[in-house]
Amino acid sequence: MATAQTTAGPGRLTFLQVAIGLQTLAIFFQAVTAGLLLSSSHGELLHGIGARVMYGASMVYVLAAVLAWRPGGGSPRPILHASGFLVLASVQVVLGIAHVPSLHVPLGILMFGLSVLALGRQVPPARVPEPRATRR
What we know:
- The chain is mainly alpha-helical.
- Helices cover about 70% and strands about 0% of the residues.
- The protein is globular.
């Protein structure tokens, strides 16, 4: 029985890392298009499209967390984080449709921060090569 690789090899990304990265980018796009709402007639269309992409990215994040956990028997904690994020995304969509910017905007900022935090937890720090000893 074959198992899926849940850790990245050198220079390789996991599906979970890609999913969180996509989600983070989608939320950042939402922030940009929210600004366009103030200055352009195209802002509303782009923000609506971005909302669908962001929600889909949140669902992909849940799927990636389940797939990363299941084959390797790792911690289910990423599934809880991803599911919680999907709940936040659902609330965000409802607030956006209801035109409640006093809650919609701060929740969007919180979601971006949490997504960046989740991404930072998944991406390992860059390895710095040890300096070579010099001969004299």
